[in-house]
Each structure stands twice: as structure tokens, then as C-alpha cells.
Amino acid sequence: MSDLETARLAVDGGATVIQLRVKGAPTESLVAVGRQLQELSVELVVNDDVEAALALGCGVHLGQSDPGAARAAGAGITLGISASTRREAAVAEFSGATYIGAGPIWTTPSKPDAGAPIGLGGLADVCLATQLPVVAIGGIDASNATECIEAGASGVAVIRAITDLRAVRNAVDAAL
Q1: How far is it, in rounded angstroms, from Cα 144 to Cα 2?
Q2: Mean pLDDT of all residues in the chain?
Q3: Alpha-carbon distance 164 to 142, whole Å?
Q4: Which residues touch 110 (CB under 8 Å, ≥6 apart)?
Q5: What is the pLDDT of residue 23?
Q6: pTM, two decimal places
Q7: What is the band of 153 on the pLDDT scale with cuts at 50, 70, 90?
Q8: 3-state secondary structure string, the chain?
Q9: What is the count of structural domains for the chain?
Q10: What CATH number is associated with residue 91?
Q11: What is the set of active-site residues?
């Protein structure tokens, strides 16, 4: 399935944001794929590549150690920064983040190097540390999305559960 087909499936399932995440891809390739994804009626966020985000005029999501937060914040684009602790959330907010990606909440086979799961307690701690919207990620599906919202998250991000996104969306909407 192509990136565009996967994104269409996600939008049809109720996604409100699509993250373009292709590790190691050159900026030019991300921009080319991003232009296709911009045809969809959904917000686009590029993972780890500030230059691609700026070229596309969309948001960017960065890890704690990724460079470019100041440049993205200065450009006024949506800036997500990953956090797994209260301290990291506070640093991300101070760095100009417009939202926090918290996790991993649970173990996830989609990102084996994600670090130890923070669980719902860790998610609640991150949510308490910031005034920014918090998006929970890591091992989330329709069976546990409601718990993330109840812990304080504004939304959830999924990879594996994309084929069951309508059920995830329904669970989130019911919890909000």
C-alpha cells in the first residue's frame, strides 16, 4: 500500500492529523510525498525534518534531542516534541512546542527503540506538567484509547491500529 493510500485510509477512518514519517529519507523525497498528502483534507506533520516542513508549510514533530526546535518555533509552524517525563514536557513547552507527543504509553512493535513504556501514570504526569495539548502514542488501539483520554491526553496517535481507526476514533470521541 502506498503512503497516499495509507493516508486516505486514515482520513476515511477519522484521522485529523497525518504524520509523514520515513526515517532517513532525503528532504526532497519527503517534500514530494508531502505534496501528495496535502491533497487530503487533514493537517500534515513531518517527522524529524524541519526543512521539509518549512518547504511544505506544514508542522514538524521532533524528538527531545533533534535539532531544529528553535527554527521551527521561530517560523511559526506547528511544532510537536516527544516527551516521556514531566521534565521533558516542560523543556518542550519552553522550547516552543505547540503540542507534546507523550509515550510510549505501552510497548509497541512499531518502534522497538522507543524506550520503556511510561504507562497511564506517566502519561498523566506529562499532562500535568504542561498547558499544551498532549497526544499519547505507543501501543494504542481501540481497546485502550479511552484510558489515554481519561489520563489527560487531548488525542492519540496510532500506527498499527490504522486498519481499525474508526473504532479508535469512536473511543476517543466518546471519552472527550
Answers
A1: 28
A2: 93
A3: 7
A4: 159, 160
A5: 86
A6: 0.93
A7: very high
A8: CCHHHHHHHHHHCCCCEEEECCCCCCHHHHHHHHHHHCCCCCEEEEECCHHHHHHHCCEEEECCCCCCHHHHHHHCCCEEEEECCHHHHHHHHHCCCCEEEECCCCCCCCCCCCCCCCHHHHHHHHHHCCCCCEEEECCCCCCCHHHHHHCCCCEEECCHHHHHHHHHHHHHHHHC
A9: 1
A10: 3.20.20.70
A11: 21, 82, 111
Q: Which domain holds residue 59?
A: 3-175
Residue with cell 481497546: 143
pLDDT band at 156 (very low <50, low <70, confident <90, very high): very high
d(Cα 38, Cα 32) in Å, to the nearest integer? 10
Which three cell numbers mark 68? 531544529
Set of cell numbers at residue 143: 481497546
Terminal alpha carbon distance of the chain = 32
CB neighbours (10 Å) of residue 20?
A: 26
Of 4, 16, 31, 19, the residue nearest 111 (C-alpha): 19
What would the grid cell of residue 80 be? 510537536
| CA-based nearest residue to 129, from 96, 100, 156 | 100
In the numeric block, which cell numbers belong to residue 122? 506517566
